[in-house]
Design a protein that fits this description.
The protein is mainly α and 626 residues long. 56% of the residues lie in helices and 4% in strands. The strands form three sheets. It has a five-stranded mixed beta sheet with strand order 6-5-7-9-8, with helices on both faces. The protein is elongated and about 95 Å long.
């Protein structure tokens, strides 16, 4: 009964955080139909589409056509999307994303509660420990952008239980404990390979510290525990290796895999500074939030522990200094915090050790706090349990709960004033809602804004449309210019066309037009769509759809048709249609004139026709004449 009540309480917290989505409509509202939530909507829809049509759920050419996308090489959380396929089939990917975002923190808290009870038998202490881990600042700030790969941490507490059994308690068979460890590692791979890599580093470090401590202080216990521990760890590694042999190969060497440094700027994404653990942190710029996919107030630092929690842990460790559990988990917390420090010029931090190691080079330092908060949760529960044990009646319970309030209430206040999360409807432009579902099979779309431009909304439109067409390009780590091969120049021109940050939009020079046409050919694009959506947030509309239509008219050499509020170039045959040579300034003047007459986000043939007319007039002027 205790477990049922605790689980329901955690689930209630999860619903409270996501209440706006459930109240407004969980199949239509979520964080955003843009940014990283759009990427995860795609990740939820593809396995459902694949299984419905007997296709591979781990690979698709519906994105990044024709090369495709390898979901196991991405943050695709197939460990969540596959179990939720029935939800996606019935209610769509928005509902699945909302279910996962609501339930994953609650399950994480519950497994942490189960783990913490091994060291803190008093249920309220274990409950607060689970609450801290499942709804930690680390989890909440990752929920802010639908980063489910670092929200669904439910395997780490279970892995901790298996390791505790193998290394210390040794009450069950070493072989079967090792098998359990291997199975948990297998499941974690499909939730987050990055968190699995981080856990492997921390486990290796922890085992090394335990062995050294045994050699220095307790060789008798070390000799007694070592054979069982070695067997269990060997079996766990062996089972995990066998089960993961194909998935790891597929991720690292399968079709459309990502090699080398996955994120070219992973060092900039980076880690924390010491103040991150005690200061709420920066206010993120609105553009960053909008591109990331959240329109609410940004949450504080994901490493935030606060002075009060740190004080309770530190004072508790000193007060119960003979308790080796506090020292071990304290070491794990400090080690996680140190590993999470960012790499900066002129400074050495442990994360530099991972800089040139295969796979580990892609770990984002700050995510070591996925382990750090678990260590903090265990420490807090142990301290509260020990305080309760001093006076095992109402006085001890009251004292322990008061101490728990001192530790957690300041953190709750800092985050609570910015919660629950703000939700927005996922609204498709008219063309994608009305025309796209009727497209015949085999269409390959280049959407505007291009999903690799930083504005990823086109992936949400494709996912909500249940993959009725394939798409050129995509977002995430694969959607960077250096992975575009010979299409990279066109990739960069189309990026500037949609979102010209720090640069000017393309003006249809001969080199720009040639680059775009080559890219369209490489991607086997059949249809170019520039959908206008006056009701969408300005950033999600792209820099200027009318200007983009003028550019594509010059690049494709013909006028579009206007369908359901969109400029559409269908049945592309680039070899049969030469581009238009237009005088300098033509795109700007044509776009401004069209927008003055019809508005900035209205699809009419005014701008494309103006471009075509300017090209004809320029072609009739004899050389050398003005």
């Amino acid at each position: 009964m205790t477990f049922v009540v605790v689980g329901l309480l955690y689930l209630a917290v999860g619903f409270a955080l996501w209440v706006h989505a459930w109240a407004a409509g969980a199949s239509t509202h979520t964080l955003c139909g843009c940014g990283d939530p759009a990427l995860f909507l795609w990740f939820f829809q593809w396995p459902a589409t694949a299984l419905a049509h007997g296709q591979n759920p781990f690979f698709s050419t519906a994105l990044f056509h024709p090369g495709g996308i390898n979901l196991l090489a991405q943050t695709s959380v197939t460990g969540l999307s596959l179990p939720l396929v029935p939800v996606t089939w019935i209610w769509g990917p928005i509902a699945s994303l909302n279910v996962a975002s609501t339930v994953a923190p609650a399950i994480t808290a519950f497994t942490a509660f189960v783990a913490v009870r091994r060291w803190a038998r008093w249920t309220p202490a274990a409950f607060l420990g689970g609450l801290l881990y499942g709804f930690s600042p680390f989890v909440l700030t990752n929920l802010e952008f639908a980063h489910l790969m670092t929200v669904a941490l439910m395997m780490l507490p279970l892995i901790l239980i298996a390791l505790d059994e193998i290394l210390f308690r040794q009450r069950h068979s070493a072989v079967w404990s090792g098998v359990l460890l291997g199975l948990l590692v297998f499941v974690q791979f499909f939730l987050s390979t990055e968190v699995l890599a981080i856990a492997a580093v921390m486990v290796a470090l922890g085992v090394l510290v335990l062995v050294l401590a045994g050699l220095l202080f307790d060789r008798v216990s070390l000799r007694r525990l070592a054979p069982h521990a070695a067997t269990g760890l060997a079996v766990g590694v062996g089972v995990g290796a066998v089960l993961l042999a194909w998935p790891v190969w597929y991720a690292l060497a399968g079709p459309a895999h990502l090699s080398g440094l996955v994120w070219p700027d992973v060092g900039i994404i980076g880690g924390f500074v010491p103040s991150s653990f005690v200061s709420p942190g920066r206010e993120a710029p609105s553009v960053f939030l909008a591109l990331g996919g959240y329109e609410g107030t940004p949450l504080p630092s994901e490493a935030y522990l606060g002075w009060s929690l740190l004080a309770v842990l530190a004072v508790g460790t000193v007060a119960f200094f003979r308790d080796r559990r506090l020292w071990f988990f304290g070491f794990a917390l400090v080690a996680s915090a140190v590993w999470s420090l960012g790499i900066r010029r002129g400074e050495w931090v442990p994360a530099r050790l991972l800089d040139h190691l295969p796979v580990l080079e892609n770990v984002i330092e700050q995510r070591f706090m996925a382990v750090g908060f678990l260590a903090a949760a265990v420490m807090l529960a142990v301290v509260l349990d020990r305080v309760h044990g001093l006076l095992p009646d109402w006085r001890g319970a009251l004292g322990a709960l008061a101490l728990g309030a001192v530790a957690l209430v300041p953190m709750a206040v800092v985050f609570g004033e910015r919660l629950p999360f703000v939700m927005r409807p996922v609204v498709l432009p008219r063309w994608y809602a009305q025309v796209a579902p009727t497209l015949p099979p085999g269409r390959v779309l280049l959407s505007y804004p291009a999903p690799f431009s930083g504005i990823q909304s086109a992936m949400a439109w494709q996912a909500v449309n249940r993959m009725h067409y394939s798409q050129a390009g995509g977002g995430g780590p694969q959607g960077v210019a250096r992975r575009a091969g010979s299409a990279a120049p066109g990739f960069e021109v189309l990026t500037r066309l949609a979102f010209p940050v720090g640069s000017r939009p393309p003006t249809a020079t001969a080199s720009e037009v040639a680059a775009v046409r080559h890219a369209l050919g490489v991607w086997e694009v059949t249809t170019v769509v520039i959908a206008t959506d006056p009701g969408a947030p300005r950033l999600q509309q792209g820099s200027d759809p009318v200007y983009a239509a003028a550019f594509m008219t010059a690049a494709l050499g013909r006028l579009p048709t206007v369908q359901a509020g969109a400029f559409v170039w269908d049945h592309l045959r680039l070899a049969a249609q030469a581009p238009l040579a237009v005088p300098r300034g033509t795109l700007t003047s044509c776009a401004l004139a069209a927008e003055a007459a019809a508005g900035e986000a209205e699809a009419t043939l005014a701008a494309p026709s103006c471009v075509a007319l300017a090209a004809r007039q320029a072609a009739t002027v004899p050389a050398g004449l003005p």
